[in-house]
Amino acid sequence: MTRIIFMGTPDFSVPILRNLVKEGYDIVGVVTQPDRPKGRKKTLTPPPVKVEAEKHNIKVLQPEKIRHELDEVLALQPDLIVTAAFGQLLPKELLDAPKYGCINVHASLLPELRGGAPIHYSILQGKDKTGITIMYMAEKLDAGDILTQEEVHIEDRDTVGTLHDKLSEAGVKLLSETIPQLLAGKLTPEQQDDTKATFAPNIKREQEKIDWTSTGEIIYNQIRGLNPWPVAFTTYKTQLMKIWWGEKMPSKNDSPPGTIIGIDQDGFVVATGNTTAIKITELQPSGKKKMTGEDFLRGTTISVGEKLGDEDEKNN
């Protein structure tokens, strides 16, 4: 039986590991990131893949740097290593060890969106499609030869959360189809065209702040491209306000960007840098829970003519 080591860390990886177990592969070990402090109480929390592996009594390794614990990984004598959002590059000694190589489940149509946040960038850039790529791992980030790919359509109302789930499901299906062909020697790897590569580095704090001088389309993509994490934000009376959802709507109002130009029962409308305004319908004021626009308006005196985002952020 083929001996497989699975490497992954977040929720995206869990269905992929679960399906490998379901399909009867011999999972001889799972490698994931160390437990990390989480939440306001900084509780030490295991990564989702560790929780799933322990349900199946699979040996778990959690190296801070995998290159420093190679012997323990190699001792498992894998025929194949499968990674999915693991979070570390593999050293050459490990890439060369398994008989069938090391393959990765990547959430983009490579060579587009190489890097750690391909799902976020696919929405931030307003794409109408992305996909899953199964590829050989290489020493250079996401640059290995492609084995198989599958497109996934992005709906206009998709968020990072909904697209994440679609891609994870597509990854399960494509990997399930790919491994038998790989083991049978029926796949011909295709080299990536590096000249067509684009990149999706991890999201930075400054990318979360809404610039109301941008077009309504860009702001709309920013809101859904950061939902449910890390969530776009603006400021209102110097207080941080997270924006969870907004609707695009046409506007002939020529007020400065960020100005509140309308209020109705379920939200308030904000001017942008073009004729597409954004109606905020789900938000989270500083120090409070997420709420609907209707609930927010019920407990505030916000009014037309006030501005968002024109003062420095005061707190988080």
From TrEMBL:
GO terms for molecular function: methionyl-tRNA formyltransferase activity. Coiled coil: none annotated. It holds the Pfam family Formyl_trans_C. It catalyses: L-methionyl-tRNA(fMet) + (6R)-10-formyltetrahydrofolate = N-formyl-L-methionyl-tRNA(fMet) + (6S)-5,6,7,8-tetrahydrofolate + H(+). Its EC number is 2.1.2.9. Keywords: Protein biosynthesis, Transferase. CDD domains: FMT_core_Met-tRNA-FMT_N, Met_tRNA_FMT_C. GO terms for cellular component: cytosol. Residues 3-179 form the Formyl transferase N-terminal domain. PROSITE patterns: GART. InterPro entries: Fmt, Formyl_trans_C, Formyl_trans_C_sf, Formyl_transf_N, Formyl_transf_N_sf, Formyl_transferase-like_C_sf, GART_AS, Met-tRNA-FMT_C. It is an enzyme of class 2 (transferase). Residues 202-299 form the Formyl transferase C-terminal domain. (6S)-5,6,7,8-tetrahydrofolate binds at residues 108-111. NCBIfam families: fmt (TIGR00460). PANTHER family: METHIONYL-TRNA FORMYLTRANSFERASE, METHIONYL-TRNA FORMYLTRANSFERASE, MITOCHONDRIAL. Belongs to the Fmt family. Attaches a formyl group to the free amino group of methionyl-tRNA(fMet). The formyl group appears to play a dual role in the initiator identity of N-formylmethionyl-tRNA by promoting its recognition by IF2 and preventing the misappropriation of this tRNA by the elongation apparatus. This is Methionyl-tRNA formyltransferase.
